[in-house]
Amino acid sequence: MNTVNTDVLVIGGGPAGLAASIAAHDAGAKVLLIEREQRLGGILKQCIHDGFGLVRFKEKLSGPEYAERFIDVFKEKEIPAMLQTFVTESKKTDDGFLTTVVNHEGVTKIESKAMILATGCRERTAKQVSIHGTRPAGVFTAGTAQNFINLMGELPSKKCVILGSGDIGLIMARRLTLEGAEVVGVYEVKSTPSGLTRNIHQCLNDYGIPLHLSHTVTRVFGDDRLTAVEIAEVDDKMAPIKGTEEIIECDALILSVGLIPENEIAENLGVQLDWHTKGPLADESLMTSVPGIFSCGNALHVNDLVDYVSESGEIAGKGAAAYAASARKAAPKAVDLEAGENTLYIVPQKVTLPEGDASEKTIVYFRSKEIFDKSIFRIQNEKGEVIFEKKYPFLRPPEMEKVLVDFGAFDLANGGKLTATIEEVTA
Amino acid sequence: MTEQTIVCITCPRGCTMNVKQDGDEITVTGNSCKRGEVFAVNELTHPMRTICSTVSTAFPESPVLPCRVSTDIPKEMIFDVMKEINKVVVKERIGRGDVIIPDVLGTGADVIATSDLLK
Known about the structure:
Number of helices of chain A: 7
Structural class of chain A: alpha/beta
CATH class of the largest domain in chain A: Alpha Beta
Number of helices of chain B: 2
Distance between the termini of chain B: 55 Å
Largest sheet of chain B: 5 strands, mixed
Strand content of chain A: 25-35%
CATH architecture of the largest domain in chain A: 3-Layer(bba) Sandwich
Radius of gyration of chain A: 23 Å
Helix content of chain B: 10-25%
CATH topology of the largest domain in chain A: FAD/NAD(P)-binding domain
CATH architecture of the largest domain in chain B: Roll
Number of domains of chain B: 2
Strand order of the largest sheet of chain B: 8-5-6-10-9
Largest sheet of chain A: 7 strands, mixed
Distance between the termini of chain A: 69 Å
Strand content of chain B: 35-45%
CATH superfamily of the largest domain in chain B: CPE0013-like
Helix content of chain A: 10-25%
Shape of chain A: globular
CATH class of the largest domain in chain B: Alpha Beta
Oligomer: heterodimer
Structural class of chain B: alpha+beta
Number of strands of chain B: 10
């Protein structure tokens, strides 16, 4: 059996893993990337629509263009990658981690000082949104439809219904329409859309595709192939209202009902997860509860912009390289950061406080729990003193916010707790 | 005078803008930057959009190649441009930025490849 050695092992070759690999390499670490698919780029390979890179490159790029900019750099720097390679096991050892991978060449053991988990997220499936009826072909996730059309060049439906208003569902509503399919409508169980406002406009309104809020699919029909779905209006507890049912003929039901960070490897390694984000609890360098294991991108928390995925990859890459070089000092002082009132989640959940006069701003990401007009986002300590405050004209859960906080400017006590809250200001 | 609400699609911020039109005079409020104003004025005068799609290829391992228009095209021409895109079969191993259809339907926009996947 082959055994290889590296400083930093990166799992996943999507935008997070690519950015993490490049950052760790630039920080002087020996890096190895593991990717299960044939090509690097992750989900961006099939995200052919544009709008990527507006924050980072100030350009409107398509997914492949954005990914390939990083792949070009990755290749220029000759960072090693193993493609079509699966992780079968990873465990902690005395001086790091031992990971077993398998590919065409057989089994390889990889010893690494640090690990970066850039495993992305998975789509929730029909099984996770319990729909009654038969189990015909034609019920699939928006990501699967995207793969069919954009990578395989096959149109998987002539007339479809989309359940859920997540961004991929909205993007696919437009894509299917452009390719000649009829999208009867997008049905969302919640009373507010899940996707970005601009996507409601440029993907649905532009093409006359109706969005039905507070509606869901209650039943599917069909033996071999889907023939129809039953739609019903829901009440404020999301329960279908009797008498509002309507049957819609269609050959596909496309689901865009949420994304869940993928953390199977993390959980097997004993990494603690945050029930808010469904990703690992992390500190400001994106190190998880297990020293030496870092998390970034959609594995850490589901992002709406790839620009932030790359950014988190870079933070994790830098952190992992420093850890591998033992340049990272043991955390003398750290505080917990918790999502409080009106805050859906906050990342990182732990912040190491700088020593002495050293002052470095920490990137903090958060989402609001509901749609708010004029509001104030605050981070306060246990005494109620305000550490950070920022005003927003509006906050919407689908749109993640990023702030830079200088935690070093305050005399925070070790083991303390900070709470993030959002207060809506009524004029 | 007419008044309407337009959501800016230029960036992910998605500003909700109020647009007042009085003859030739258009007043935009609620935008966070200059691009919002340009977008709102265009929406009232000549709405422009970008399109991203795929073209067929002659290579079985990669049956389609992603592409997009190099610059925005008139909104009403989206489906005409899609028809042109769907006529193409790429037979050369072209890459990112290479022109597939120059000046598609006289719009001034080229249809360009957006991936090196054939390389």
